[in-house]
Amino acid sequence: MNRVIRFLPLTLLLAVYGCSSEPEDQAMVSRTVNSDPVRAEPVDDPAVRSGEQIYKRHCQACHDPGAGHPATLLLGQKYGAEKAVIKGRQDLNLVYVKTIVRGGLLEMPPFRPTEITDSELDIIAEFILTP
Length: 131
Ligand code: HEC
Prior knowledge:
The protein is mainly alpha-helical. The protein has helices spanning 2-34, 37-40, 51-58, 60-63, 70-79, 94-103, 118-129.
């Protein structure tokens, strides 16, 4: 009798785990089988944006050529017309561009990994340096 009472908690524990783990496993299998790859990866998933998409969404308003773009205006005043537009500049490098995008620079705001992911950071830096 004593033995039964001593092992009762263990028995109950095993019974509870034994029962609960099976439906959970089944649920996981059915989730995997039923998951629709098209829905799981929406087209606007930030992970799949191209350099051009990132630039248009996050950089172009300030950095496009021409009047009305504050960064172009400021950089032109500071470094001259040939350095006013960042797209295609050959005097910048990947590490510098990525550092500025993450950290910001004076009037330029920093971009968080929730806005531009780490892999997108590489993509946008490559895009900026490409003529
Ligand atoms: C809200 C406006 C704004 C946005 C948006 C913005 N920038 Fe800037 N950026 C600036 C300004 C202003 C400067 C110039 C800062 C200074 O030196 O006075 C600058 C400077 C830079 C520089 C340094 C250029 C140099 O000659 O040293 C880089 C690189 C840069 N931006 C990249 C980007 C990229 C890439 C994006 C998009 C992910 C971006 N910026 C978005 C305003 C912006």
